[in-house]
Amino acid sequence: LEKMTDLVAVWEVALSDGVHKIEFEHGTTSGKRVVYVDGKEEIRREWMFKLVGKETFTVGATKTKAAINIDAVSGFAYEYTLEINGKSLKQYIENRLKTTNTWILSLGGTDYRIVLEKDTMDVWCNGQKMETAGEFVEDGTETHFTVADHSCCIKAVSSGKRKEGIIHTLIVDNREIPEAVE
């Protein structure tokens, strides 16, 4: 059972279509590199003579660009960093907090993860891009969609403050859902 003996890094990455697990194996004696996304092998390289470098691949339904950088720190120690869309994971997460809203809710015993991409107003639910209908209302806009026969609406209202911008609120069956922190 040599599987996962050279596991050196595991990351969880929240994208619009779900939270993805990225695992990286690096055999520093064999030069082996293996990248798994959600348990599925994406890249396997045996006998790499150069132990440092970069492995690039895509993640999720949106085929988001990802890369693992392998850098030597000292002697036989290595550092592994994950980049998403050309940004460090930390920068990506900080940027994502500004460009998306995420809500987690349970309807009829099933958990749903709803994500709003503020730049495109696309709505994702459990990995599927939703059909939506937008309308202008007195105090802003409403984006309507349905999840498991429940009527959902994301209200976008100006905060009145320039720094805060627009406030997005998810309402399901006339009940406000608190935003999740991922």
UniProtKB/TrEMBL annotation:
Subcellular location: Cytoplasm
Record GO biological process: apoptotic process; negative regulation of extrinsic apoptotic signaling pathway via death domain receptors
Cellular-component GO terms for this entry: cytoplasm
Pfam families in alphabetical order: FAIM1
Cytoplasm in keyword set: yes
Protein's UniProt keywords contain Cytoplasm: yes
Superkingdom per UniProt: Eukaryota
Keyword list, A-Z: Apoptosis, Cytoplasm
Biological role: Plays a role as an inducible effector molecule that mediates Fas resistance produced by surface Ig engagement in B cells.
Protein family according to the UniProt entry: Belongs to the FAIM1 family.
PANTHER family noted in UniProt: FAS APOPTOTIC INHIBITORY MOLECULE 1, FAS APOPTOTIC INHIBITORY MOLECULE FAIM
Protein name in UniProt: Fas apoptotic inhibitory molecule 1
Native source organism of the sequence: Motacilla alba
Phylogenetic lineage: Eukaryota, Metazoa, Chordata, Craniata, Vertebrata
Gene: Faim
